[in-house]
Records
---
Amino acid sequence: MRRFYRLFLVVYSLLWVLPAHGDTSSKCPDSFQDLAISLSQDLPSYLNRTYTRLKINQQAIVASLPDLNPLPLVTGDRNLPSPSQMFISVLSGKVGQTKSETHPYWLFIVKTEKGWRLAMAFTKTGNAPIQDISDGAIADATSTWLRDRCH
């Protein structure tokens, strides 16, 4: 088992330096709906690379199709465009364990002159208040995907 785990780590480390799906020159989707669908398909592999790099003992298994129904937002500056919003669930678990959990995420993405970028990310667990995870693993994975595909 220990040899398998070491082999797994070596292969995963090599995957970190390779493109997510072989072709990083893929065109960035023009519509937010197409972008959200592509992101949800690629997100588990990007998230797993982020977990490996950050030494988080977690493994993303699959992401749901995105829900694009926006939450109502109150912004102070009416001249700023509202970010595009997507809700996504990621099924994940601890490496080497069979138990898995679904984690909800709200991603707020804006289109800039240089392409799409992540503005904010949030999650909610149980009865706990909503947490800003804009500097967490899901945000890092999303930003990396946007950089690879849309910059």
---
Amino acid sequence: MKRYILVMAAACVSMASANTDGVNIPADFAAGDFAYQNTATGFGDNFNELNGLFLRSNLGTIFMGATANLEQNNGNRIIIAMDTKAGGATQMPGSFGFTSGQGHLFFGGGFAVDYVLHMNIFNGIMYIDLYDVQGNNNMYLGGTQVNGSGGWDPGQGGMQPGSAAFNNTNTAGVGGGNGMDGNAPTATTGFEIELPWNLMGLNENEQFCAMAYITGGDGFFSNQFVPGIGGGDNIGRNNYTQNSYVCHTLAPEPASMFALGIGMGALALRRRRR
């Protein structure tokens, strides 16, 4: 029985140990849930493009990834909107900090945004914020040097070095333009982050849904939304409704996994005695 439980524990550790380094993102999230871009970028090929959005979870942690490029020092940003609980908003708040001017984004399909993850790059550092829409407060999570150079600017929420990474070297993925583009799955680098569930009050077996997009700092939206818009120009300041999302069922917490291991171990022992 001890041997069986150790195997279970080793499997759990293996699941949690994929590097948060901004590379090999599709492989890291192969067992999770994801969606790919379907539209060429109107914000500059290999400068501002969003090729895929990825979700997975285990042991009380939610992992998110985005295969992407993002320009620095010009106000462009990657936004991930998340529906995590009852309530929320069906319109992006347009008057708070980094979501200022973004009130022309609406959510359909039963999605209501509860939290917004915001990333922008300034002088080689990606800064990361988490905005609580229902509570109307912002938490600065920290900053990580782009392309894995190892620096970390500590913020709130207990995030540590290695909790987030952005590799901005992608030359694959979608091209430039406004038409349909099926090359998004070729991109493998970009943004990764791991967040403890308690930052957003998450619980095991609940559904966690998200969508992502690139926008300018003044609320001028690109055409880079994931799930994609199906071809078309930059949204700009026009009203836009997002109707599709990536959804993921949160994995059991460690206690549940341990209980599962105990149960399976007992079953194995019972079978051995027969």
